[in-house]
Amino acid sequence: MSKGFLRGAGGLLVTTGVDWSTKLWAPGYTDAPLMSFLSNSYDYMSDVQWSPVHPSVFATASSNGTVNIWNLAASLDQPISGTEGISIDEFSGADSATASSSSRQGLNRLKWSADGRRMAVASGDKMHVLGVGEDVWKTKGDEEGKVMNNLLSRGLIQE
């Protein structure tokens, strides 16, 4: 495990590491991870950060140069950024259609802005600032409750 951050009243924790996965934990319920989100490309995950404003959203950075954004209130299965993620090549001027995953520069770190509308992503000696849509930073009701209901309905936690 390389990163973790407690989130909200549910006490959820996300970690990431070189095993190609991001894990969701609920230490108040169990000592084992609730679920693992695996990298489609089998590249290691280098960072994970919860959104500072949206209680069910987190982002991951990968060694293959992609960012994935997850909203656990919307889905426990698919990132809202799409299964391929967001390639930093698209923002650095590289032609993402011709850039192979092996030629992409890996991401080292990511950090949300305080208002959750932007994200800084470090890649080698470069920093990229990504704007995110309103669906990422604006909450829609009781997001923590939706996450807990999703986890309960899957039998991942017990009341």
TrEMBL record:
InterPro entries, sorted: Dynein_IC, WD40/YVTN_repeat-like_dom_sf, WD40_repeat_dom_sf, WD40_rpt
A GO molecular-function annotation: dynein light chain binding
GO cellular component: cytoplasm; cytoplasmic dynein complex
Subcellular location: Cytoplasm
GO biological process, alphabetically ordered: transport along microtubule
Keyword Protease: no
Keyword presence, Magnesium: no
WD repeats: from-to residues: 38-72
Keywords: Cytoplasm, Repeat, WD repeat
Entry superkingdom: Eukaryota
Primary localization: cytoplasm
PANTHER family per UniProt: CYTOPLASMIC DYNEIN 1 INTERMEDIATE CHAIN-RELATED, DYNEIN INTERMEDIATE CHAIN
Protein name (database record): Cytoplasmic dynein intermediate chain-like protein
